[in-house]
Amino acid sequence: MQFMERFFNRPNLPIFEFVARVAFPPTLLWLFLLFPPFSAQGQDFEFKKEKISLKYGKSYYLLDVSDKRPTKPNQLGNVFLFGKSVPLILDKSLEKALFEHWGYSLSTRENESLPLEIQLEEVSVSERKVAPNKIVGEMKVKITFRWTRKMMPVFLTSYSSGSTYTRPETAYDHEALLRRLLDSGIQQFDQWYGLNDKKNPLLARGFRLVLKDVLPPDRADTVFYRPEKKLTWYDFQGSANRPGSKFAAAVFSSMSYEGNSKMADNYLQATISLKVFMVRSMSWGRVEARNNYTLTHEQTHFDITRIIAERFKERLKKLDLSIEDYDSQIQFEFLEAFREMNKEQEKYDSETRHGLNTEAQAAWERKVQAEIARIYQGS
């Protein structure tokens, strides 16, 4: 009471002098200025917002940060403070803190910008005291970069780094070192993006299908389908000596496709080249049956193969082909088209009785030619 009375009787005493004398003896005041603020639970920590230098930063934006670490969401590890190991604590969850920090540099969205997702696999700080006034510390960072394309996660690349340091048992800027490690991960991704942009299908924003009818010149044993070129008996070079065969002629017609893919801008483009052909050495006609009527029957078989090939193309156009599985989807549709072709050929022969039913034959010819005309209209 006497002290308080003496103090209040000195109205000109500076407030700071009063606080220093009453609340903080010189030793404690020196420690307060030397060490950063801390709570009873540990040392507080937050990331500074600073722009990260990125070359391709407008090509992607930060959509999400998720913390996969098996630890408390706001703790980064343990550091030494006042001679004790205490938790290094964020004022919020790590994923939220880094979303705000990284989002400061990755918030720009442009047309077809990649929605980047970052997963935190490891972000840790650990320290141990090895001698009086000597602390050894280690920081580890492991993060992965991905994005979601049509509900499917796409892994892009990962980044791992670490740093060891030795410090006296005084104040230390943990935030600056850890931020540099984490921001280096973003910069490494930026470099990876620059190397892979418009080249790597992992970055493809979508899928494009290009369909082509391939019309190479005829080969010695192969005739490729052209609407203006009709088959001749010259094209039937297989042996007609078929023991037990009651047919006058047969044409071996089929179809095939070749596919290749490449990046076109931000899209994966697959080109399907379709061929419809007949094989001379496997097609035959008896000498006595080599007339225009029989030849037209065999030509219609060839036309049916072309029609089925067109239906295959039409189905592909309607499919929602995925980048991850387009090849198997196309192969499945091709096999279905092949089955359809065989069924249609059998139906044709069954209804026309292999051309013996002239009325049915004429009906099939009209139907098939109308379909061929529709395929090539305007060409």
What does this structure look like?
The protein folds into 3 domains: 1-34, no CATH class; 40-201; 206-375, no CATH class. Helix 6 packs antiparallel against helix 7 (326-352) and helix 6 (292-318) crosses helix 8. It is of the alpha/beta class. The strands form 3 sheets. Strands 1, 2, 3, 4, 5, 6 and 7 form a 7-stranded mixed sheet that branches. Strands 8, 9, 11 and 12 form a 4-stranded mixed sheet that branches. The protein has a two-stranded antiparallel ribbon with strand order 10-13. It has helices at 2-8, 15-22, 26-34, 94-103, 174-196, 292-318, 326-352, 358-375, and strands spanning 43-45, 60-67, 75-81, 84-90, 114-131, 134-149, 152-167, 206-213, 222-224, 249-250, 253-264, 267-279, 284-285.
Radius of gyration: 39 Å
Mean of pLDDT: 89
Sheet with the most strands? Answer: 7 strands, mixed
The overall strand count is 13
SSE string = HHHEEEEHEEEHEEEEEEHHH
Q: Count of helical segments?
A: 8
Instruction: Please give the domain count.
Output: 3
End-to-end C-alpha gap: 109 Å
Bulk shape: rod-shaped
The poorly predicted ranges are: 1-40
Helix content: 25-40%
* Secondary-structure content class: alpha/beta
Report strand %.
Answer: 25-35%
Topology overview:
Elements (H helix, E strand, L loop, with lengths): L1 H7 L6 H8 L3 H9 L8 E3 L14 E8 L7 E7 L2 E7 L3 H10 L10 E18 L2 E16 L2 E16 L6 H23 L9 E8 L8 E3 L24 E2 L2 E12 L2 E13 L4 E2 L6 H27 L7 H27 L5 H18 L4
Parallel strand pairs: 1-4, 2-5, 3-5, 8-12
Antiparallel strand pairs: 3-4, 5-6, 6-7, 9-12, 10-13, 11-12
Helix pairs in contact: 6-7, 6-8
